[in-house]
Amino acid sequence: MSLKKFSVLVLLVLSIAAVMPAAAAPSEAPVCVQYHTVQRGETFYRIARSYGLTMDQLQGINGLANINRIYAGQSLCVKMNDNTGTTYTVQAGDTLSKIARRFGVNMSVLAQMNGITNVNRIYVGQVLVIPDVTIQ
Fold it and tell me: Are 127 and 66 in contact (CB under 8 A)?
């Protein structure tokens, strides 16, 4: 191969490499960002509901084999940072529709992402994941 052809080939490879997107950095693994300490008399169902989760979601987050075996003092993860949006803590007077409008997201997507089955029932102190607008 002549030096001229080799130089053209090198320039071509460098040009292609320059326009190719860089590989994305690996995302961080999801981590628990909010815990709940089980109180005497609490049920798994009520804990899940109070955080806007389904029982399956709460069980999955905590890797529990038997949801009937929780005990007072046990720490349960109730919110994971899944790197799919920012978080917002519900304040007095908030409604899901107001929060959705504030962040410019679809209320149905917001409810689904947070495991909310009744859009009229959110709680002060509840932490919601606000989805990135691009995933809607």
Answer: no
